[in-house]
Amino acid sequence: MTKELWVKNGLVFTEEGFREVNIKIMDGKIDSLEKAEPIGDCIDAGGCLVVPGFIDAHVHFNDPGRTDWEGIETGSRAAAMGGTTTIFDMPLNCSPSITSLQNLHEKKEYLRELSHVDYALWGGMTETNLDKRSELAQMSKGIIAWKAFMSESGIDDFQFVSPNGLTKAMQAAKEQKKILALHAEWDKEITRLTAFYQYRAGMDERRAFLASRPIAAEEKAVSFCLELAAKYGTAIHIVHISSAKVAFLIEQAKKSGVNVTVETCPHYLIFDEEDFIEKGAILKCAPPLRHREEVEGLWDCIKNGIIDTIGSDHSPCLASMKSTSSIWEAWGGIQGVQFTWLALMDEALKRKIDLKHILPLGTSNVAERFGIPARKGRIQPGLDADLVVIRLDETTIADKKSFGFRNPFSPYENREFSLKIKKTILRGKVIYDDQKGVTKEKFGLCL
Fewer beta carbons under 10 A from the terminal one: N or C of the chain? Predict the structure, then answer.
């Protein structure tokens, strides 16, 4: 039976900008955008923006194996509450990591019917599986893209790739016509500096951690992988960059013909190193937070179109893993999937940056880069009816009781955002309503 639904009276974000049109949805797909008054089942979005459902290409939901850290049920619940309708789950922090065909198949089977939002899976390239080219080729058919680390990942069964190993990873990804995403920090530099700073007498421990992972370690790693990508013609995606200096390196390579895109995360645009020094482990991440000048530099990059995508890098853990006696022992990761777009849009509005420059970073840009523009990322006929209804005249307070993720702590706690997500719609179904919460039914499908 054909199911029809309308979203009416909203200010709808389209390729032509915001428009006063009604959205006709048929069987979960956008059928048309019309001025005519709709007849039938309607969602009244009067006074609201209606934007495409956000795509978060960088989350660690830790399923299977570390569900006490998060799990896709709670992670996707938090994502839906934040307006995200599609996530790409990283291949590490689950146990076992997704570095073999068997692990990939088992994870896909395990996740079936557990997610509130649509999802795709990353595959992992590590020093231990790079020579298994036939198996990697088989894995590539069931993943959205590849992920590799150029420094220690913090997970025992997800080894970083050496400089020689990265050459193999580049070649394999090119052969498979898959994107290779990279955590780009130069391992030898970090190892050397950590040995120097970790036990340095008289130095504040948090400042020592910052000094152990400088921007120069990012720059060296990024420069190296850009050279290899240029040599082999590999499509690469540099994740969670923390500095405008790194973004400019990537932009220069892009202009020279390298097939590269770049992601940053909300925490690099909201918080700075002084916040980390004050609050400690709750803001520990890698690369670490930077000086306020770098934060401002990244915002300039966004305004100038140099940043391609935003990902939350939601990397949860148990509270006890943040409450350690030493910052060096604390888990490095930030819980933020629920607040990524609230925080970014709030900050953009404060800076008087038009949302038309912000929204593509989590919608059409992501869909285009990762090969799903025929399904996701825009409000146009034929695409999935993934929509977010937002009010700009209501506020959201990130208090602990509102957290959707499993372990209720976050650096965003007690922040107030000058907008509110009213509804999140996945393929024509309301999966989150600010009055009713998240649906009990889980409609998420694997892409």
Answer: N
- Do 310 and 270 touch, CB atoms closer than 8 A? no
- What are the Cα distances from residue 419, in Å, to 19, 49, 274, 349, 360? 19, 10, 26, 10, 18
Residues of the chain with pLDDT under 70: 1
pLDDT in the model for residue 202: 86
Give me the sign of the Cα torsion angle 183, 170, 262, 16: negative
Say which residues have a Cβ less than 8 Å from residue 346's Cβ, sequence separation at least 6. Answer: 417, 418, 419
- Helices marked H in 82-120 — which ranges? 101-111
Q: Residue 415 and residue 336: Cα distance in Å, rounded?
A: 12
| 57 SS3 class | strand
Please spell the DSSP secondary structure of 313-356, one letter per residue: -B----GGGTS-SSTTTS---B--TTTHHHHHHHHHHHTT--GG
Would you give the DSSP letter of residue 428? T
Please tell me the distance from the alpha carbon of residue 305 to that of residue 307, in angstroms, as a whole number.
6
CA distances from residue 206 to 198, 274, 340, 409 in whole angstroms, order as listed: 10, 10, 25, 20
Q: How many CB atoms lie within 10 A of CB 15?
A: 10
Instruction: Tell how far CA 9 is from the center of its chain.
Output: 30
Q: Express each pLDDT in 21-69 by its tens digit.
A: 999 999 999 999 999 888 889 999 999 999 999 999 999 999 999 999 9
For residues 125 and 150, is the Cβ–Cβ distance under 8 A?
Answer: no
| pLDDT of res. 36 | 85
Residue 336's CB is within 10 A of a number of other CB atoms, namely 28
Of residues 254, 92, 261, 212, the one with CA closest to residue 161: 92
- Helix or strand or coil: residue 148? strand
Q: What is the pLDDT of residue 377?
A: 98
The first and second tokens of residue 354, run together, are 């038009």
**Structure-block tokens of residue 119:** 């999802």
Rounded CA gap, 367 and 286, in Å?
26
The whole-angstrom separation of Cα 100 and Cα 98 is: 6
| 25 strand-pairing partners | 5, 30
